[in-house]
């Protein structure tokens, strides 16, 4: 019986090669796109699950309130991890991570800027799964100034030589002895580092007693990523229930003094990658995007399945005689249903093989673009092949069921008399419903593509409130220049292509310093957490900030160096200073008893500007004068002579210190990096939309070809009666244009609603959806749809009407 079914399928394919090719291509492309998205989604959802103990690992996050200022942080206080292990028997182990910052490390004649070296406790290998290639995890980071490298880092410095026992040198911190080499981190690890340095090194540099102190003020200073490993069969709720007593013991005394409150949240390691809205967090993923791509994959599979159903039911009259004869010869409906279902499943299997080939060819480029390391190796990921085959078989089964029931329902007597059967009208109606559904998906994807592209353009070209072009940022954190910055500034300003230079602790995109300060209110000085940056006299001018009120820092005002502060408009509003901000006081770096520090007075107000991405609201920020050299040198150059300015900068850099190469970035590139995820999403959405439309048009091409063939005699008669090609086209256009219009009317409100939710949930500032977007999407759908059906209709209309009338 199966042999008979396969023979019938072969003959049917041989008779209808064009339609078979369209079906196979549409289904294969749809499956390939869905498979790649499945691999992407699987990789995203598997973040950090390579750790054997991932179900027992939690990150400690801070929920801090000081007066009316409420903030959520991904980091925790330095002593929180050790204190948790001491106070809670449920905690088996803890470990902490802290990025070192851009630092130069060297070995012999090889020197590299490293920005992914990380400090970690010696317990890190008890908590996380980092397999060792060389060395052993026991005590690998227990001693100060020891380091464990990843394989890629070890190869970069030492080639194929085992580096264990050797040392890397840091100009600022001395030699670090290499105690181990671990495998490179998987692509789906939210922790990104190239080497681990012992946390005890930091304790040695800062002073053991100070670093390990558990006095109350240490529990209110954030800045370190902290993870705890729970014992087996312990719930995190057990920790949460005991935390109030912990707070009472370690933190309440200072909390009461500053009118503050400190709560903790515990995020499972496997969900850390998708955390949103936390300050000082590592780059993370977005569950919204995972859902978007999952939906796109479903859309593409649906359209491919719809194409198959449409083509099968549209060609029903071609197979009606075969079905009638089979029924007369004794085939029952069940046998026919099995036959047509097997045909669709076989087609799905062939499409699966073609799709697999497409995935193998495309996956390397996809990995490069998304910076992932997704593998199709059967030994690494055997389950994915079963998942993809299951999807292909399910798609084939579902797309074949309706045609199987529809075709098997034909009545043999009516079929052999040349009538398709009583179900013909309902079959035609169902095809129209499917076409409408296809275009609903296509129009939704077009609208989504336009909205995402417009939002990306808005993010990149929206006025940030300062001049970001032609600003060069030089990191001095591991350079001798940090002590020579004043001299270097003077030397650089001698070149006419260098317009302005400033030295600061931060810049837009890198304002990460937050401190509790006392801010003047109506009745008293109130403690608030404030974002701040230490700057010099040239900061406002170099960044092109606009003074709204008051004045800039002034070298002629001797008191400015210790007393002057400039705030932004949001600070004025949030601090309640709208009446007159000038002269208002801010107490900076005071002692625990409120004495000492610097009493600052507001001398100026600058415009609000986006010092974070447009995902975040504008917060209060203050600028005060630095009393020591700071980390960043920010240089505004003449855009017309940028190359000459950079050459001069490099010459001056080498005059001061030839041992360390110049490393710089342009601020516009740093700001663009904030939207790397959106750039990738934009590109992937465009590709998904193109594939969706392509598959839909393949189906439309096959359907229009069949309908044009079916109506060949009608077209010939119309031509004989004087109808022009335009008249014939219009008769076809009316039906399809109506279907596209129905799809458009149904889709627009759904698309607007869903995309508005996406914009509101991901961005504080975004471009509002406007009606031209929807008109353009509808116009594209109409143009492409009608353009596709035109080819076969025009071809049929150009035939000699005599030949058309004779057509069988």
Please specify the SSE layout and strand pairing.
Layout lengths: L1 H14 L1 H29 L11 E10 L2 E5 L2 E2 L2 H8 L3 E9 L3 E5 L2 E5 L2 E4 L3 H4 L4 E4 L10 E5 H8 L8 E4 L3 E9 L12 E4 H8 L1 H4 L10 E9 L5 H15 L1 H6 L2 E9 H4 L14 H28 L1 H13 L4 H38 L11 H27 L3 H5 L7 H38 L9 E5 L9 H8 L5 E7 L9 E7 L4 E11 L3 H5 L3 E4 L9 H4 E5 H6 L10 E4 L9 E9 L14 E5 L6 E6 L4 H15 L7 E3 H7 L2 H35 L1 H9 L4 H38 L8 H27 L3 H6 L2
Parallel strand pairs: 7-12, 9-11, 18-23, 20-22
Antiparallel strand pairs: 1-2, 1-13, 1-14, 3-13, 4-7, 4-13, 5-6, 5-10, 8-11, 9-12, 10-11, 15-24, 15-25, 16-24, 17-18, 17-21, 19-22, 20-23, 21-22
Helical content (DSSP H or I, runs of 4+): 40-55%
DSSP, total strands: 25
Backbone CA Rg? 34 Å
Largest sheet: 14 strands, mixed
Return the structural class. alpha+beta
The low-confidence runs, each spanning 5 or more residues with pLDDT under 50, are none
Overall residue-averaged pLDDT value:
83
Strand coverage percent: 15-25%
Number of helices: 27
Inertia-based shape: globular
Distance between the termini: 32 Å
How would you describe the overall organization of this protein?
The protein is α+β, with helices and mostly antiparallel strands and 808 residues long. It is built from 27 helices and 25 strands. The strands form 3 sheets. Strands 1, 2, 3, 4, 5, 6, 7, 8, 9, 10, 11, 12, 13 and 14 form a 14-stranded mixed sheet that branches. It has a 6-stranded mixed beta barrel with strand order 17-18-23-20-22-21. It has a 4-stranded antiparallel sheet with strand order 16-24-15-25. Strand 10 (167-170) and strand 11 (174-182) form a beta hairpin. Helix 11 (287-314) packs parallel to helix 23 (676-710), helix 16 runs antiparallel to helix 23 and helix 23 (676-710) packs parallel to helix 26 (771-797). The chain is globular, with a radius of gyration of 34 Å. The two termini are 32 Å apart.
